[in-house]
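Here is one chain, start to finish.
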Amino acid sequence: MKTNSDSLDILSTKKILYAEDEIEVAKNTIEILELFFDKVVHVTDGQEALDEFTYNCYDVLMLDICMPNMDGLEAIRQIRETDHKIPIIILSAFTEQEYLWRAVELKIVKYLPKPYTTDSFVNALEKVSLDLIGYQTSVDISPEYTYDFSSKSLYHKESKIRLTKNEARFLEYLIERKNQIVTFDDLYDYIWESEDPSKEAVKSVVKELRKKIGKRLIKNIYGVGYTLEI
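Its structure:
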């Protein structure tokens, strides 16, 4: 399996929603996705995908076209009404021009025909990785601190600061939503999907992160959540 680890590393803290109604196909694809993503959530039709996206937080979407209840393209069309940026991959046996044009209009990252090769699949994930970081590998979060998406590391001037997986995931979530309020519920869904955390669990991550980047950048919005002021 040929990979560009520098770009794909960003996926290790990301969450993908995958929609596919053929169970055997889904099983094989999930095995590959779990090599790259922190969390993989699988649904079996377009309506489920739309509902799941509406009520939970995801970084990447991957949908088949032909599914019961609602096809993948219609689900994406409705998702694009509220989210114009989330990277989307379409996996489909359909290669007709009509489907291709509809996919282009929905601003997908990659249209991947089935059956796909491992290399073509990984290439699609590399395109998603670059889309997620805006073709940048790092971002300045203050005059003194820089976060590197590819290595999941925080730098104070030239000194590297180690982050735990939850700290990196939390910080990336705030960076991607800089100067916006991120609620406790958003954080529960995004970081602790399979657990039942308390506000103290979130506060503990914030406390440790503030020790590493200072108290000024992450602002507490009392009773609501946090914001990263850049």
